[in-house]
Amino acid sequence: xxxxxxAALGAIVAEWVPDQPLLAFGLGLLSHFLSDIIPHGDxxxxxxxxxxxxxxxxxxxxTIDGVISLVFVLFLFNTRLIExxxxxxxxxxxxxxxxxxxxxxxxxxxxWLIPLHRVHFFFHNMVTHRHGDLSFPSGFAMQMxxxxxxxxxxx
Length: 155
Known about the structure:
It is globular and about 45 Å long. The longest helix has 24 residues, at 85-108. The protein is mainly α. It has 8 helices and no strands. The chain has one domain (3-154).
């Protein structure tokens, strides 16, 4: 999933526990792994990154997604759409943290991040290794529909 999608989902699940930021963080984290089970079209991009053939493309997608996520969070916090900022912040953090740490691992190869990297890709590949992934355009479209549905819940 895109970081933006994980951030929106983290914000939504945090609304379930508006007065419990730590629980919102945990639910955001859980939502990340559960939503990554859904095939979403980025398997080939990651394989190309690891193989060294699509590094620039992968970095470009992650950078664009990161900027869009930042704009999304700034929009949320500069409108009156949310009331429970601590819980929403922690839900978003839990929702995006696994991808941020996987990215940190990919750049640094830090040993203590290996278990998280394995858990992340266990969920990420749970369905796609058995049944295949969507094409990138199909995955992109699916995530846009999913993201629109999530954003309509925040409005």
